[in-house]
Amino acid sequence: MTSLRTGPPTRARARDTVQSPALRRIVQVVADLAGKPLAELRILDLACFEGQYAIEFALHGAQVVGIEGREANIAKARDRATQLELDRVEFVQEDVRNLRRGRYGGFDAVLCLGILYHLDFPDAIRFLERVSGVCDRLAVLDTHINLGLSRDFRDGRHVYRGRHYIEHSVRAEASEREQSRWASLDNARSVWLTRASLMNALIDVGFTSAYECDVPPEPAKPFDRRTFAAVKASRAALRSTPGSDLDEWERVPEHRSRARLLRNHGPGTNQLKQLLLDVERLWPRRGSAGYGPRSWGHRR
Fold first, then answer.
1. Please, what is the average pLDDT of the chain?
2. pLDDT at residue 61, rounded to an integer
3. Of 35-49, 147-161, 241-255, which gets the smallest average pLDDT?
4. What are phi and psi of 109, to 5 degrees?
5. Distances in Å between the alpha carbon of 102 and those of 99, 130, 213?
6. Distances 46 to 151, 186, 251, 294 between C-alpha atoms, Å
7. Which residue did the predictor score with more confidence, 30 or 269?
8. pTM score
9. In terms of CB atoms within 10 Å, which of 110, 146, 167, 187 comes out highest?
10. CA 198, 204, 205: angle at the middle one, nearest 5?
């Protein structure tokens, strides 16, 4: 079997060692959450670049489809698969915004790694809809999120927050954009959604739960880049509340309420809490029952 690193070095190959924590995280998340052994999975790798993730899963025995928009990247991915004599991985050159279940079928796991934050609005939402459309169980997203100032983006009755990010000069020719391999395929700008808006978008397109992943660790990962796992299933009904599965879910709030007095520990908090509890013992308030919902801590 030929080594994965055979051939002339590229930027992606040079980063193989650096990327191993990221690769380990994605493989572990899929192995833990997909509900089947890796060898039984059908996996879609969107914007697969030179095929590192697609090939890794194919080496585990999964049936993999990798979609990539740039011809040079597809050529290198196919060359790697040929060198490794892999017959369960297919690479297709196409814009991921054209993803359709009618063409590709359904997948146990869909990988959206480093693609969402390269799409403009509302393309980012349409993309998530198409991901949901081909996803039978699990979607894994690795993306930048907006942590700073943001603005509203309206899509029908839904409002999301984020900010624009410049991908290319508006004067760049198509050939220039094609050669800029670490930017979007053609759009001059993209939108980075906030974490809350991404969670709300996943709800809106049909996922029933979503989780942020910190383990396995990626020590070098930028703070504004996160890994999320979204599961697509049926909404669970609460048997103590009939019809709850039909209720519209609330939105994930963009801004959490600020910590009230004593809710979070800070400098001097324990000393202040002790003082208030001693005062409570000496002069109990009517209806107060210690450090509970109606006491100095307000709630836990």
1. 85
2. 96
3. 241-255
4. -140, 135
5. 9, 11, 31
6. 28, 16, 27, 51
7. 30
8. 0.81
9. 110
10. 95
- Which residue has tokens 């095929």? 51
Neighbouring-strand partners of residue 154: 159
> CATH assignment of 11-246, given 3.40.50.170, 3.40.50.150, 1.20.140.10, 1.10.530.10?
3.40.50.150
Domain ranges of the chain: 11-246, 260-300
CB burial of residue 115 (10 Å; 0-12, 13-18, 19+):
buried
User: Which amino acid does the sequence have at 81?
Assistant: A
